[in-house]
Inverse folding.
């Protein structure tokens, strides 16, 4: 298969060569570790209840009975294609669950800044074609391994029929000396910064751009004169880019650091063009955010109360709820990265996960699912939340899509909740929830071109 | 299944009908009276009621990435940007059976359609946004012939599943990416050197060549700027007789006179529209209250961000084909500018003579939310209600508008034109917006009364494709439990596919997505049978 699309990070590459041998796939066009891991691995696994193999029907029934009996269920992970995420949110609404993505911390940090002051950003192709300077906190390749090749170093741009000369400034710790170097071996400027110094550094940059004076020198360990030079270069750039990876910002007040960068963007755009680039999007995080926004009006993290979404980015953090003993059933969905569910002692875990997921302990229910773009068709949203990527089916694995399993669980939950519905609507019957939901996904199921 | 709507006053201006008569429905369509032998399976008594086709909103921001950004920007506001499910339910409860998303950025089309597929009950469509895309500006720079440009436009419409094409601030969004903050109609834009006038004319001509029914949907340059009347008049002239639809014209009808350098130019604009038969408009009426403005016009939205309430905004440059800007606004009746904006919109409605060339919009959510339409209808139909409202606004604005002197009251027939018959005609929907046999049985039955707002807010009965979906302004419980899905309306102009080679190369060289993956396939969002294809009528040039 040539030109395969890859759903495993927010970059959304669609130029992969994937070779198939039986049901085994191998990426041969790039050494991107996320693509290689994502397309690789087993194509089959048995469903299991309490670690013992079970038929799918039994696993679905067990999952439904756990969820129907739970008082504070949490739907977490949420790393699926958009159809899967949509079905997961519909199930959460039905059972009164909290909803959190596996990258919920990163989403919450960015959403907090966005909701406080807004920001100025650009989508990836815009940056690829226009940027003349990028200032990034951390190496963007940590979040998007092919970032430099795909976004920063094209052979030509809209502006010039030659490789762009771009200035690169990388701020952070542990950045390799060759990170961000151009194909012509022009090195990036690397500014060492302790990770948790970012709020101070971002605030100082923002203050300097607004014409303020920074009295604490150095700021966040960086001489203010050096920060002033960075602001000066951003001000002189025609189309500057400021990038950050909220997932890597696991220190206090990370949301305020993002907000300071948003203020920096606002200040710079008074005279020139500078755009923000929130890096990330693995696990179809932006798909989860978008699907939640358009189907509930609210972004994750939220909890359904009487069918109504209530958003609270702190309160409905799945990790917090688990740690505080406020969760009595965990539905973990990861059809992309094989990340195992968080350790949740005493809480029954239902895991919709890919074969090969390395569980710390056997979940109460394990239902193997296929990956969109590998085992079935689907859509994921790129990290810039603009381009929805169409994904192909590359092999016949018999692994169900998340949406199919969610429909079956929802159907079983509703049958359990209301015996009348159970009697009238056998799963798959014309009037059943199953059939109703499926009506919206016919197109996805019918076709698919194994390579 | 034969359904009879008995004895209502049928107001169906497309067929020149205003009379008491029965309406018969079979298999989702309006049918001829099958004769005395036929026995209806269901009969609804519409005696004393007004029967119209379902409402059609030809400009309402209901889907796409920018609406999600608006939701994320304003988590504290509930109800301003409803989620997809509520969009369909609220429109249906109000007697509307179709709405068109007017600003689908091509690169975001797939997401917009995924979202629209979740809007229940009503039919949808979308205009693809062109005119700030680097590809088109390049074709123009290379002086490519109009046929190649038309092929490109047709290809983009098909690839994004569009019903029409909209141009927003022609060339201005692209110019903003080069840090140009203002672009006049005859000013060459940066890098590509194209003027807004040339972009506008090129696209209008392309659509005529392709025979796309809906005229080029135009969001003029200089939105919101005092004195932009000259730009708007220049835009009308710049169309040179080609069909154009000037959208949210209220925001483009401003003078710069008076102490506050802000005045109404509605009468000059109305005069020009009345004279230019190639021009249709929608108003984008301002209704007082909180909203979030959502526009592709980053140049204008960045400029207007200083008026943001609450003080926050988003701007985004998008994928070498567009942009989006979100700015929360609180329109206040006691604010001079807001009050005059309100009055200017009403002046436009009342001064443009031909209702067939006016569509009723608030540019949801930019002037106000679509659920404010019933109040807007009353403002148009009820002079004394309008005068009372006029007394409530900021006094200098009241003194600056001629609204109080305008006696016109819209008739029911004219409202039916503004809200269904006219939009259907402007969109080229032959079987919508009217009630002749063969039309889709999208029907709204109103209970008439002195209060037109109450009448239009809570229709007695609403049928979608022949099925009853709402009663007395409320969606039926069984419909809520299992809402029917509407159709997506599209056109697919005939075109020479040679241009696709260039697009493939362009995508491979400059985009992060191949053209094949950029283009939507029929089987990937919704199923083929829910797409309604409308014919184009190409003109020999």
């Amino acid at each position: 298969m040539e030109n395969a699309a890859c759903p495993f990070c927010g970059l959304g590459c669609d130029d992969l060569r994937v070779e198939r041998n039986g049901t085994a796939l191998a990426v041969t066009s790039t050494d991107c570790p996320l693509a290689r891991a994502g397309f690789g691995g087993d194509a089959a696994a048995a469903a299991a209840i309490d670690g013992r193999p079970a038929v799918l029907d039994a696993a679905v029934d067990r999952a439904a009975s756990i969820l129907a009996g739970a008082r504070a269920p949490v739907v977490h992970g949420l790393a699926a294609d958009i159809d899967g995420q949509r079905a997961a949110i519909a199930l959460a609404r039905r059972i009164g669950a909290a909803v959190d993505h596996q990258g919920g911390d990163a989403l919450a940090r960015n959403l907090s800044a966005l909701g406080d002051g807004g920001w100025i950003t650009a989508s990836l192709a815009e940056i690829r074609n226009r940027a003349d300077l990028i200032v990034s906190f951390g190496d963007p390749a940590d979040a998007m391994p092919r970032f430099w090749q795909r976004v920063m170093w094209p052979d030509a741009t809209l502006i010039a029929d030659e490789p762009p000369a771009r200035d690169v400034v990388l701020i952070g710790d542990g950045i390799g000396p060759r990170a961000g170097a151009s194909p012509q071996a022009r090195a990036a400027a690397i500014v060492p910064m302790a990770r948790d110094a970012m709020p101070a550094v971002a605030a100082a940059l923002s203050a300097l751009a607004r014409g303020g004076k920074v009295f604490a020198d150095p700021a966040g360990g960086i001489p203010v004169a050096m920060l002033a030079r960075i602001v000066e270069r951003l001000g002189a750039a025609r189309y500057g880019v400021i990038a950050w990876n909220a997932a890597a910002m696991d220190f206090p007040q990370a949301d305020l650091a993002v907000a300071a960068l948003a203020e920096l963007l606002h200040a710079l755009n008074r005279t020139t063009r500078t755009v923000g680039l929130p890096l990330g999007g693995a696990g179809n995080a932006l798909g989860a955010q978008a699907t939640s926004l358009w189907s509930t009006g609210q972004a994750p993290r939220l909890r359904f109360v009487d069918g109504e979404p209530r958003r609270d980015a702190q309160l409905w953090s799945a990790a917090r709820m688990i740690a505080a003993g406020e969760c009595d059933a965990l539905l973990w969905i990861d059809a992309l990265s094989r990340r195992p569910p968080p350790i949740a002692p005493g809480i029954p875990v239902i895991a919709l996960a890919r074969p090969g997921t390395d569980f710390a302990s056997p979940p109460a229910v394990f239902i193997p699912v296929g990956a969109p773009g590998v085992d079935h068709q689907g859509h994921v949203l790129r990290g810039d939340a603009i381009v929805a990527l169409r994904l192909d089916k590359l092999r016949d694995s018999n692994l169900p899509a998340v949406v199919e399993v969610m429909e079956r669980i929802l159907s079983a939950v509703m049958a359990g909740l209301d015996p009348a519905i159970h009697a009238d609507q056998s799963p798959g019957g014309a009037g059943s929830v199953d059939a109703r939901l499926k009506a919206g996904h016919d197109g996805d199921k019918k076709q698919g071109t194994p390579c | 299944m034969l359904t009879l709507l008995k004895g209502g006053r049928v107001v169906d201006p497309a067929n020149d009908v205003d009379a008491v008569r029965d309406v018969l429905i079979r298999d989702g369509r309006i049918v001829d009276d099958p004769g005395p032998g036929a026995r209806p399976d269901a009969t609804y008594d519409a005696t004393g009621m007004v029967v119209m086709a379902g409402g059609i909103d030809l400009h309402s921001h209901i889907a796409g990435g920018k609406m999600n950004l608006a939701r994320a920007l304003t988590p504290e506001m509930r109800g301003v940007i409803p989620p997809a499910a509520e969009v369909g339910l609220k429109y249906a409860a109000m007697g509307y059976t179709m709405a068109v998303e007017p600003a689908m950025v091509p690169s975001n089309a797939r997401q917009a359609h995924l979202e629209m597929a979740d809007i229940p009950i009503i039919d949808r469509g979308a205009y693809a946004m062109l005119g700030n895309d680097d590809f088109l500006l390049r074709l123009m720079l290379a002086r490519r012939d109009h046929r190649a440009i038309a092929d490109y436009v047709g290809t983009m419409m098909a690839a994004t599943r569009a019903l029409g094409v909209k141009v927003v601030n022609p060339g201005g969004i692209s110019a903003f990416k080069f840090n140009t903050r203002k672009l006049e109609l005859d000013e060459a834009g940066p890098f590509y050197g194209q003027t807004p006038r040339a972009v506008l004319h090129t696209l209008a001509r392309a659509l005529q060549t392709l025979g796309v029914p809906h005229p080029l949907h135009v969001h003029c340059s200089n939105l919101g700027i005092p004195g932009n009347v000259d730009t708007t008049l220049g835009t009308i002239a710049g169309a040179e007789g080609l069909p154009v639809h000037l959208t949210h014209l209220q925001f483009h009808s401003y003078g710069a006179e008076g102490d506050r350098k802000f005045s109404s130019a509605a009468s000059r604009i109305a005069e020009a529209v009345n004279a230019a038969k190639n021009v249709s408009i929608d108003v984008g009426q301002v209704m007082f209250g909180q909203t979030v403005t959502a526009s592709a016009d980053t140049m204008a939205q960045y400029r207007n961000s200083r008026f943001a309430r609450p003080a926050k905004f988003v701007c985004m440059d998008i994928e070498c084909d567009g942009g989006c800007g979100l700015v929360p606004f609180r329109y206040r009746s006691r604010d001079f500018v807001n009050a005059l904006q309100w009055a200017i919109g009403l002046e436009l409605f009342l001064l443009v003579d031909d209702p067939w060339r006016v569509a009723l919009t608030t540019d949801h959510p930019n002037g106000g939310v679509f659920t404010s339409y019933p109040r807007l209808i009353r403002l148009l139909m009820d002079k004394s209600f309008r005068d009372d409202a006029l007394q409530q606004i900021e006094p200098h604005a009241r003194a600056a508008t001629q609204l109080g002197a305008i006696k016109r009251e819209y008739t029911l027939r004219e409202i039916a034109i503004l809200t269904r018959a006219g939009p259907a005609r402007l969109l080229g929907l032959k079987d919508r917006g009217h009630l002749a046999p063969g039309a889709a049985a999208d029907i709204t039955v109103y209970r008439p009364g002195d209060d037109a707002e109450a009448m239009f807010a809570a229709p007695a009965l609403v049928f979608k494709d022949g099925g009853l979906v709402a009663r007395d302004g409320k969606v039926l419980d069984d419909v809520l439990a299992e809402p029917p899905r509407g159709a997506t309306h599209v056109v697919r102009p005939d075109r020479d596919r040679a241009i696709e080679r260039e697009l493939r190369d362009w995508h491979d060289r400059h985009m992060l997505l191949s053209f094949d993956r950029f283009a939507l396939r029929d089987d990937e969002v919704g199923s083929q049978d829910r797409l309604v294809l409308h014919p184009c009528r190409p003109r020999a040039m």
